[in-house]
């Protein structure tokens, strides 16, 4: 590892001299991200394995994203938690290089896989026949292999002297550091960030226009050319993509500022670390909120893990619905009786009036 520059030494000093309350807050934030991400992605993998509608080869790319998020959380975040507690890197240079390489590899696989899923959603909505021809099981398997190979190749040059893997005190993690190798930085940024983001945005805009056109056609003719399940799947995907881009935009901005020599405060660098791993925790939440299959699978898991609590809540919910239904029936019965009473009273008064008039 190369020597740290002046700004890194300042960040390292600030990391060691933090007050206790700041140590607790920063550690808790990263630990919460770790717990939510690990739990959510494990549940997502289990749901995709147990659900017949999700356990298809069409969802292999989505499963790859979930697996990458789980691995990034388990293999990288615990080191950051330890650094935030101790204030320094205590695991040695070799492990620092491996953690930096793994984080770069997994994040590259994640963004490229999201781009591949965007292309698949685009083909699925625009041309089902083309989608079935291109995204077959064998082709998807080769896509995943190529994505991992390409990501491994993009993250490997620091081992050859192009850039380096360094512990960055401001980020509280080991990451890739390009240094003065601007050519590698430009190529890496273009291939790993620029091109996938361009593909994702282009597919998103095109699919959004097609969905809006489908809504207008449906409103006029009551006929839809796109299945509602496909629309929900596309909305879920692009919600995930938008969330990832919003979280990673500050990272790209800080990277560009650091490349031109602008010194950033330690808190800003630490926020970029949070932003890197925050999507890993938010993706399962989006799956649960926007996909009915994930909600059903999650409730089934709760039923197995907490049968008594789940059954008690279900009984209470059923009893509550029964009470509401009984109240509605009682109100309707009372209204019917009241109407009949009013009719009988009106009929009786009419009869009395007729008798009085006859007399």
TrEMBL record:
<feature type="transmembrane region" description="Helical">
    <location>
        <begin position="61"/>
        <end position="86"/>
    </location>
</feature>
<keyword id="KW-1133">Transmembrane helix</keyword>
<dbReference type="InterPro" id="IPR017452">
    <property type="entry name" value="GPCR_Rhodpsn_7TM"/>
</dbReference>
<feature type="transmembrane region" description="Helical">
    <location>
        <begin position="268"/>
        <end position="289"/>
    </location>
</feature>
<keyword id="KW-0472">Membrane</keyword>
<feature type="transmembrane region" description="Helical">
    <location>
        <begin position="237"/>
        <end position="262"/>
    </location>
</feature>
<protein>
    <recommendedName>
        <fullName>G-protein coupled receptors family 1 profile domain-containing protein</fullName>
    </recommendedName>
</protein>
<keyword id="KW-1003">Cell membrane</keyword>
<keyword id="KW-0675">Receptor</keyword>
<dbReference type="InterPro" id="IPR000276">
    <property type="entry name" value="GPCR_Rhodpsn"/>
</dbReference>
<keyword id="KW-0297">G-protein coupled receptor</keyword>
<dbReference type="Pfam" id="PF00001">
    <property type="entry name" value="7tm_1"/>
</dbReference>
<feature type="transmembrane region" description="Helical">
    <location>
        <begin position="140"/>
        <end position="162"/>
    </location>
</feature>
<feature type="domain" description="G-protein coupled receptors family 1 profile">
    <location>
        <begin position="40"/>
        <end position="287"/>
    </location>
</feature>
<keyword id="KW-0812">Transmembrane</keyword>
<feature type="transmembrane region" description="Helical">
    <location>
        <begin position="20"/>
        <end position="49"/>
    </location>
</feature>
<dbReference type="GO" id="GO:0004930">
    <property type="term" value="F:G protein-coupled receptor activity"/>
</dbReference>
<dbReference type="GO" id="GO:0005886">
    <property type="term" value="C:plasma membrane"/>
</dbReference>
<keyword id="KW-0807">Transducer</keyword>
<feature type="transmembrane region" description="Helical">
    <location>
        <begin position="182"/>
        <end position="207"/>
    </location>
</feature>
<feature type="transmembrane region" description="Helical">
    <location>
        <begin position="98"/>
        <end position="119"/>
    </location>
</feature>
């Amino acid at each position: 590892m190369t020597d740290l520059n002046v700004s890194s030494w300042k960040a390292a000093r600030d990391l060691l001299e933090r007050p206790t309350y700041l140590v607790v807050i920063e550690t808790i934030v990263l630990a919460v991200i770790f717990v939510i991400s690990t739990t959510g992605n494990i549940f997502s993998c289990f749901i995709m394995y147990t659900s017949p509608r999700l356990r298809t080869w069409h969802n292999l790319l989505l499963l790859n994203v979930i697996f990458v998020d789980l691995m990034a959380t388990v293999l990288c975040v615990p080191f950051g938690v330890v650094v935030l507690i101790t204030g320094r890197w205590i695991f040695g240079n070799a492990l620092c290089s491996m953690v930096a390489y793994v984080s770069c590899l997994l994040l590259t696989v994640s963004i490229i896989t999201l781009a591949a899923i965007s292309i698949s959603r685009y083909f699925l909505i625009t041309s089902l026949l083309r989608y079935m021809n291109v995204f077959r099981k064998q082709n998807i398997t080769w896509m995943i292999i190529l994505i991992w190979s390409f990501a491994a190749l993009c993250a490997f040059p620091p081992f050859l002297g192009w850039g380096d893997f360094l512990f960055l005190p401001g980020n509280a993690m080991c990451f890739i550091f390009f240094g003065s190798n601007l050519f590698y930085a430009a190529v890496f940024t273009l291939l790993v960030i620029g091109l996938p983001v361009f593909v994702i945005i282009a597919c998103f805009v095109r699919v959004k226009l097609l969905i809006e056109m489908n809504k207008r056609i449906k409103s006029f003719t009551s006929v839809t050319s796109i299945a509602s399940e496909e629309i929900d799947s596309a909305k879920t995907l692009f919600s995930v993509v938008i969330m990832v881009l919003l979280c990673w935009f500050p990272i790209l901005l800080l990277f560009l500022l650091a490349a031109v020599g602008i010194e950033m405060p330690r808190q800003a660098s630490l926020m970029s670390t949070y932003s890197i791993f925050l999507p890993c925790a938010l993706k399962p939440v989006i799956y649960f909120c926007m996909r009915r299959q994930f909600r059903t699978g999650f409730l089934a898991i709760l039923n197995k893990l907490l049968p008594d609590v789940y059954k008690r809540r279900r009984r209470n919910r059923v009893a509550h619905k029964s009470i509401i239904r009984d109240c509605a029936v009682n109100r309707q019965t009372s209204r019917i009786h009241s109407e009949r009473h009013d009719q009988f009273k009106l009929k009786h008064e009419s009869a009395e009036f007729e008798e009085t008039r006859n007399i």
